[in-house]
Amino acid sequence: MGYRVRLERRAEKELRSLDQRDRSRVLQAIEALANEPRPNGVKKLKGEATVVWRIRVGSFRILYTINDTVLTISVIRVGHRKEIYR
Fold first, then answer.
1. CATH number (domain holding residue 74)
2. Which of 28, 33, 45, 81 has the fewest Cβ atoms within 10 angstroms?
3. What domain range includes position 40?
């Protein structure tokens, strides 16, 4: 019983801008969210209107929301740690 992972348009664009090596690492982490939406090291961001979760992949961050009632994960943003929170 896995979750369905959906990439927002902005996240798709940010993912395409990464180089091949980083893109494959980030994609592996995104695919792993389908089986474990709250892996070790996940953090809930404060100050957001909706509950936004964050995982680390090296120096990159993946921001996403979880809808447990319909088993979906929406990846909102993907980016370098220096730029992702702006």
1. 3.30.2310.20
2. 28
3. 4-80
What is the number of structural domains in the chain? Answer: 1
Domain membership of residue 85 (yes or no) is no
Strands 60-67 and 72-80, how do they pair?
antiparallel
Full pLDDT tens readout for the chain, 86 residues? 699 999 999 999 999 999 999 999 999 999 999 999 999 999 999 887 789 999 999 999 999 999 999 999 999 999 999 999 88
- Please report where in the chains the tokens 């664009």 appear, as a residue: 13
Phi and psi at residue 6, to the nearest 5°:
-125, 135
Task: Report helix angle 20-32 to 9-16, nearest 10.
Answer: 140
